[in-house]
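User: I'm putting together notes for a lab meeting next week and I want to include a structural view of one of the chains we've been expressing. I don't have a solved structure, so I'd like a prediction I can at least talk through. The sequence is below, exactly as it appears in our construct file.
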Amino acid sequence: MSVWDPKEILDSIGLGKRTEVKRSTRVADAIRKELAVLLLEKIRDPKLQDVGISRVTATDDLTIVKIYYTIYGPHKHVKAVDKAFLAATGFIRSHLARTLNMRYTPNLQFCYDKTAEKVAEIENIFQEIAKERQDNGENS
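Assistant: Thanks for the context. Below is the predicted structure for the 140-residue chain, given as structure tokens.
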């Protein structure tokens, strides 16, 4: 009679094995965390106060990192935030070089993340459809 081994069972169905995460994904996650701390504690630019980092992607060779940001609040001043990030790029890269201990610090590209706007548009479309269905249901 064999003893039930949950690890063996999970491994046999593919749930127990830990999948390897690519280095570029780990570095992108570390950059996202460091950048969030920088925005909260060290960067004093008022244009970057209502900015949050939504996601960070890195190329496999870690030469380019794209940082997607969102702007919170009613005033969406994307061009001003782009200029502020461009001005702070050197400071951010030097901080990342010190904290991440990488041989080469990747080039940073800041991109406005339009996901929230697209979600709002889709929600409006769904609300319009629901309203039309409700109006048609009441009239019939």
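A couple of points you could mention at the meeting. The two ends are 68 Å apart (CA to CA). The mean pLDDT is 87.

User: Perfect, that's what I needed.
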